[in-house]
Amino acid sequence: MNVCVLITAAGSSSRFGFGDKLAQDLGGRAVLLRSVEAFTKRDEVRSILVAAPPDSIDEFRDRYGGALGFHGASIVEGGRVERWETVRNALAAVPEECTHVAVHDAARPGVGDDVLDRVFAAAAVHAAVIPGLAVRDTLKRVGEQLVAGGEDDAIADMILGDAGKPQTSAKVVEATVDRRNLFAVQTPQVFRREVIVEAYAKGNLEGVTDDASVVERMGVPVVVVEGDPRNLKITTPEDLELLRTLLGAKGPEGRATHKRF
Predict the structure, then answer these.
(1) In this structure, which long-range contacts are made by residues 28-32, counting pairs with CB atoms below 8 Å and at least 24 apart in sequence?
(2) Domains of the chain and CATH, by start
(3) pLDDT-derived band at 11, boundaries 50, 70, 90
(4) For 29, 141, 170, 203, which has the most beta carbons within 10 A of its beta carbon?
């Protein structure tokens, strides 16, 4: 196998709440670098492309270019709005000699060799492979409309008016979803090069949230291998703290000043 890894790093981090989540300290290294480093010692991986925000790509190069270059990774232009735009743009830069493409979220720095072993082994015999975890929680489908709290709110109105009234808006459950055979999907998602290139060249990509769904639309079977709870995607500050705990990685405040970056 000759694998090119595409690291999607063009997102705005808007849900993180403050700063750039890819620049956050995770055990002494930026989240982005931890995600890239997971692939640098893999024999299957021959090239790594990091898709950066196109409107701030110079700033991105200034911040990460040196470290990424040390790991043999190249920076390419990602998309402006949707994730699929980033992948589509990056596919144009995949070296011709690559037989497979692995797409990985830059915000998943906890991916380990055990997951990569499973994904790459399966990709040697299947056209499309994704890691995932069986859903364990009960799932509810709820309506779009918000509802107020009811009688208690009316009493609070009489006593307090609007001052001090708790905000208890909620949504109504419409159905309980059968969780059998449901998986929460992770990355890297690995594809034969010709399969993912053809998939992204065809059809309407609006609303696509992962690469496997693009391939599924072509009728190509996608297989799932076991993922890892530590391979979580950092979306909020709470996710970052959870991952630090899972990996035993101290935050910057837990290390001596000279060991912070």
Answers:
(1) 28/249, 28/255, 28/259, 28/260, 28/261, 29/261, 30/64, 30/67, 30/261, 31/106, 31/107, 31/109, 31/234, 31/240, 32/7, 32/64, 32/106, 32/109
(2) 3-135+180-259 (3.90.550.10), 139-177 (no CATH)
(3) confident
(4) 29
